[in-house]
Amino acid sequence: MNQRTAEIAGALRALERRALTIQLRHFRMPPEERGRLFYALEMVGEMGELLNDCKKFIRTTLAHRRDEQVRQRIPEEAADTLVGLMLLKLAAQDTRAAVPAVPRQIPRQDDLVWLHSTLSRLALQAARLYAAEARYPRRFNLRAYEDVVSSLLHIAAFFRFSLVRATQRKLTAIIGKVQAGYYD
Fold it and tell me: What is the pLDDT of residue 92?
């Protein structure tokens, strides 16, 4: 395992621990109580929002709107997708360490064919993981988890943001929303 892969794997483990701590401390419910299907649905729903924001990036020609998608919306939705995915793994009570593939070569932001291919791969991976959870939940599919994380890392690299930092910000925002009474 190279250094970058080890860093991402370590950061992912830290994010999983933080997500579990937030879930237990602020929602006062272990993820397995809410259930794997709930979080599988959450993950694909958030992934759909990410795809929609990427579509808006592709569609618009207005620089300020594109900039908003790249700086705010896409990182936030990628983080939301990862949070749902991590909670699915936590609900499955899978403690194995994930080692997702990290991006090596990322094209320029005008390579929309590459972006479409990556988004398609993400949608397929997330949908397959959800379908497997819905049809025959068994041992959690760590490889599928790693594949979805890898696709999210590729999208983050394409848009030049840190998925880890975006997810840390999202987890902090979740705490604030719970304290403000937005979640039950």
Answer: 96
